[in-house]
Design a protein that fits this description.
- The protein is an all-alpha fold.
- It has one domain.
- It is built from 20 helices and no strands.
- The radius of gyration is 24 Å and the shape is globular.
């Protein structure tokens, strides 16, 4: 399967998960609103998610995959199976101990995460209760990440990417039930937290089944402290910081924002919107690119590795830049249409939209991190990205403390965006200094072209949004009308962008022969010979 098809496979599964996540968040906003109960649930749910992405995804998508690929390439399947069983078993024992300690010391953990809740005993106690229900989700998801990493190392991407949809399927069902029976937000938050745990069990079940089909399912053993395990944890310790830098930044932002009423909820709903393109593009690139680069570099195919990274950069920017511009321009219509109903009022939508605009400015940086970090990880260098991650965390803390008193929750979003761009700049400059950037000069020209086209699309979208702005008044128009107006804006933005891509030859969408075949229904044999003026795919010119 080609690189782009793998991107599309992972991105498509992620898109399905994120769309179901939107349905989940729309229903949750109506049931929990943006008040103290919503703050409590978001803080409780983020705790296991943060540990999962740091301890599981951060480790297994950076430290495990290069070593697993090396074992497969150089030692064969049996040794790779033994290696994976030893690593996964060590993770399970760590997770069991961590879960037990977290359940015991949950009040102290919540106090660290949300110091602002200490002044409201009722909110604090509810957060502790919800976190204790949600936290075992960490063990399920961490094990799922481990199994998913093995699947990715075997270049079986789809089911590992599809598994997160099960959480949203479970939660949408739970929320649908609550729409009819819940009249108390506290009760609703408890039921949703139970749904989180059920969703985690469902996800690990799917990935475990998929792994068994490959014959690579790692059985539980007593971990053997050999050279492979020592090397894994030597790589994993700095990878914990590197892979979890975004989660650390979220933790810092959540802690600081906890002193402002509803700020955590405002940031959460803004975060959910920009996570859609980040998940589809950035995470898909990171998942697919690392095993590909690791395999090519281990086999000494430097030029192919350079081609893979160049195509990844082009693919990422081609989709990320317009997404960032679009989120910035139509942030308010998006929040109003998707979330403003029930307990989520116009003030909440406006405040979340302001945070979304700032997050949108950082979206290209968050995606570029996923493009350039694998160049380090594939070479078994987790220390350098860890240093950069630590610097970005310090910057995030500093800017959060500086901007929050002046800008409130929007200052937290600015700090996240600034630290994200700082991380990218350090990654790129260091690769260039080491002569390992592996990008042709033509990539710079394509980047400026994509930026120009995205800016033109943004201008078109701005005027369209201004013209349609009266259609988003909640008091005057029903949801279906506002959703239709939003669909028009999305169509105008996407349509103009891809038309400009084709017009300026950055990415041809169709050849002349393909257009004729579609419009005139030419059979394949009649279209076998290309027309004299047939365009060539611009993608073929990408190194």
């Amino acid at each position: 399967m080609s690189l782009i098809k793998n991107f599309a496979s992972v991105g498509g599964a992620t898109l399905l998960s994120r769309l179901l996540g939107f349905a989940r968040d729309i229903m949750m906003a109506g049931i929990l609103g943006a008040g103290p109960v919503a703050d409590a649930f978001v803080a409780a749910f983020r705790l296991p998610n943060m540990f999962r992405r740091i301890l599981a995804e951060g480790v297994f998508n950076t430290a495990f995959i290069p070593l697993f690929a090396k074992a497969l390439e150089q030692k064969g399947e049996e040794e790779a199976r033994r290696f994976s069983a030893n690593i996964v078993s060590s993770l399970i024992y760590i997770l069991l101990a961590l879960t037990l300690l977290a359940e015991i010391f949950m009040p102290q953990l919540i106090l660290v995460l949300t110091t602002g809740f200490a002044d409201d005993q009722q909110k604090f106690d509810l957060t502790v209760l919800l976190a204790r229900i949600c936290f075992p989700y960490l063990a399920c998801m961490s094990l799922m990440a481990a199994y998913g990493a093995i699947l990715n190392g075997l270049r079986k991407f789809f089911l590992a990417a599809l598994a997160p949809t099960l959480l949203n399927v479970v939660l949408v069902a739970v929320l649908g039930y609550l729409v009819f029976v819940a009249h108390d937000t506290r009760f609703a938050a408890i039921v949703i937290s139970c749904g989180v745990l059920v969703g985690g069990i469902a996800q690990i079940g799917l990935v475990a089944w998929a792994l068994k089909q490959t014959g690579f399912f790692p059985g539980l053993t007593v971990p053997k402290i050999d050279n492979d395990l020592k090397k894994f944890w030597a790589l994993a310790i700095p990878a914990i910081l590197t892979g979890g830098v975004t989660q650390i930044n979220i933790l810092v932002g959540t802690n600081i924002a906890s002193s402002q009423e509803s700020a955590i909820a405002y940031l959460y709903y803004a975060d959910r919107l920009y996570q859609l393109p980040l998940g589809m593009i950035g995470i898909a690139i990171g998942i697919v690119l690392l095993p590909e680069l690791s395999r090519l570099l281990k086999s000494g195919e430097q030029q192919k590795a350079a081609n893979v990274q160049s195509k990844s950069l082009f693919f990422g920017l081609m989709l990320t830049l317009p997404a960032a511009v679009g989120l910035y321009v139509i942030a308010n219509p998006l929040l109003v249409t998707l979330f403003q109903r029930g307990a989520f009022d116009g003030q909440a939508a406006n405040q979340s939209a302001q945070a979304l605009q700032v997050f949108a400015l950082g979206l290209p940086a968050f995606v570029l991190v996923k493009v350039f970090q694998p160049s380090y990880f594939a070479r078994e260098d987790t220390r350098t990205p860890a240093i950069f991650a630590a610097v970005s965390v310090v910057l995030n803390i500093g800017f959060s403390l500086l901007l929050f008193p002046r800008l409130g929750h929007v200052g937290i979003a600015w700090a996240t965006t600034i630290s994200g761009w700082a991380n990218v700049i350090m990654l790129i400059m260091t690769l260039a200094f080491w002569r390992e950037l592996m990008l042709p000069l033509s990539a710079l020209g394509r980047t400026f072209s994509l930026m120009a086209i995205s800016a033109i699309m943004g201008a078109i979208l701005y005027f369209a949004a201004d013209f349609l702005s009266p259609q988003f008044v909640v008091e005057q128009f029903p949801l279906w009308w506002r959703a239709s107006a939003l669909s028009v804006l999305v169509f105008v933005g996407a349509g103009s962008y891809f038309f400009l891509l084709h017009l300026f030859g950055i990415q041809r969408l169709f050849t002349t022969t393909q257009i004729k075949r579609r419009l005139l229904h030419f059979p394949a044999e009649q279209a076998a010979q290309p027309a004299r003026n047939e365009y060539r795919f611009a993608a073929n010119r990408v190194p």
